[in-house]
């Protein structure tokens, strides 16, 4: 199979070499530079030699294209997928405008008598102005998105088929991303609205992922993986914004400023950020609070089996845990470690760290 591909590639290169040589010899260039080569049988020798030379050049080019072309296409595809729909449209419009400008400029090359040179200049002109137009289009739409964030969010929501009204954008902080439960929450469909991740948070995650400490490095890499998972969840709109506040050095303050500007909320697990946001009347969605809220309620008088794991802080107390991690403090169970006991709930205490249930041994 490989030999067949090589034969086909060689034949195609030979055909292209012949056509290129014929194109060059059909111009007046060789007649002017080397008229002796264009007379009699010498002309055919030049044709054969040129065809072989250009065939060799095309073979080298084709091999390079096959080896590196797929990687180039993949890089271009990844670059495009990172752009927002507005930027893609802006780049496309800029590309078309660049091609139109290149068309009019290439008409100026008609006065060149050598067709090969005029053709090459035309190709270079189209490539240059096409690239320039698309780059300007991408950049222009990026500036529009930064200058009018509300308009950008509405456009992106419409392009993805999500409701524009009724759900505020939610800015993710580093702790919520590393925690990872936001991914599971998003999959359930309970979380509405746009999720926003800033580039300075991504930078912080990259620094964490490059840490010399093994545990810290794993957390940073896991956070980056979670962002990728959020992008792939159907129905979830995740926007990575380059909006920054250079005058502010602290990441938490930048997040609060961005949430205020977007008229949105902050998703976090950070207790201190939660408090500061509350003082500034910025809505906060704490994943820990949500986790505690969805835990089953324990009613005084309810009974269940629990294994005593360790001693409690107070005298005669033993401690066990429910399957969801809720701590159960059982009175007079200090010496019953390792046993499964039937206990009865006496009271429930809600703390910032979670819910704590007090119980006694059911006789």
Q: What general outline do the C-alpha atoms trace? A: elongated
Strand content: 15-25%
Distance between the termini: 80 Å
Q: Which percent bin holds the helix content?
A: 55-70%
CATH class of the largest domain: Alpha Beta
Q: Averaging pLDDT over every residue, what do you get?
A: 79
Strand arrangement, major sheet: 6-10-11-9-8-7
Superfamily at the CATH H level of the largest domain? 5'-nuclease
Question: Any key phrases for this structure?
Answer:
six-stranded mixed β-sheet; single chain; about 60% helix; five-stranded parallel β-sheet; elongated; alpha/beta; 11 strands; Rossmann fold; about 375 residues
Tell me the layout of helices and strands.
Layout: H1 2-25, H2 29-33, H3 40-81, H4 85-106, H5 115-147, H6 149-159, E1 170-172, H7 174-179, H8 181-188, E2 195-198, H9 199-209, H10 214-232, E3 238-241, H11 251-262, E4 265-268, H12 271-279, E5 284-286, H13 287-293, E6 303-307, E7 310-311, E8 317-321, E9 327-331, E10 340-351, E11 354-361
Parallel strand pairs: 1-2, 1-4, 2-3, 4-5, 9-11
Antiparallel strand pairs: 6-10, 7-8, 8-9, 10-11
Helix pairs in contact: 1-3, 4-5, 5-6, 9-10
Textual characterization of the structure:
- Helix content is 58%, strand content 15%.
- It has four domains: 1-69, no CATH class; 82-147, no CATH class; 164-293, Rossmann fold; 303-361, Beta Barrel (OB fold (Dihydrolipoamide Acetyltransferase, E2P)), CATH 2.40.50.140.
- The chain is built from 13 helices and eleven strands.
- The strands form two sheets. It has a six-stranded mixed sheet with strand order 6-10-11-9-8-7. A five-stranded parallel sheet has the order 3-2-1-4-5.
- The protein is an alpha/beta fold.
């Amino acid at each position: 199979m490989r030999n067949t591909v090589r034969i086909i590639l060689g034949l195609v290169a030979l055909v292209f070499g012949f056509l290129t040589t014929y194109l060059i010899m059909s111009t007046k260039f060789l007649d002017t530079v080397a008229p002796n080569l264009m007379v009699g049988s010498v002309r055919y020798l030049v044709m054969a030699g040129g065809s072989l030379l250009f065939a060799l050049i095309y073979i080298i080019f084709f091999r390079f294209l096959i080896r590196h072309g797929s990687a180039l296409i993949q890089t271009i595809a990844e670059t495009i997928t990172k752009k927002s729909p507005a930027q893609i449209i802006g780049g496309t419009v800029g590309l078309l405008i660049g091609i139109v400008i290149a068309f009019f400029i290439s008409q100026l090359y008609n006065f060149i008598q050598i067709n090969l040179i005029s053709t090459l200049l035309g190709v270079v002109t189209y490539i240059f102005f096409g690239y320039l137009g698309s780059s300007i289009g991408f950049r222009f739409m990026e500036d529009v998105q930064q200058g009018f964030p509300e308009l950008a969010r509405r456009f992106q929501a419409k392009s993805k088929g999500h409701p524009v009204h009724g759900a505020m954008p939610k800015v993710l902080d580093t702790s919520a991303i590393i925690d990872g439960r936001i991914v599971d929450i998003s999959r359930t469909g309970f979380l509405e609205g746009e999720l926003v991740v800033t580039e300075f948070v991504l930078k912080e995650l990259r620094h964490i992922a490059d840490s010399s400490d093994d545990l810290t490095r794993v957390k940073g890499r896991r956070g980056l993986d979670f962002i990728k998972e959020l992008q792939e969840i159907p129905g979830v709109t995740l926007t990575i914004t380059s909006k920054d506040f250079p005058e502010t050095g602290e990441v938490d303050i930048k997040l609060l400023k961005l949430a205020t500007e977007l008229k949105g909320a902050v998703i976090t697990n950070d207790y201190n950020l939660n408090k500061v946001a509350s003082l500034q009347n910025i809505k906060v969605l704490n994943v820990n609070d949500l986790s505690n809220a969805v835990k089953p309620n324990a009613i005084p008088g309810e009974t269940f089996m629990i294994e005593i794991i360790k001693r409690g802080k107070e005298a005669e107390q033993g401690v066990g845990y429910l399957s969801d991690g809720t701590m159960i403090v059982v009175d007079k169970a200090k010496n019953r470690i390792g046993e499964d006991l039937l206990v009865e709930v006496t009271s429930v205490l809600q703390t910032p760290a979670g819910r704590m249930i007090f119980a006694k041994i059911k006789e």
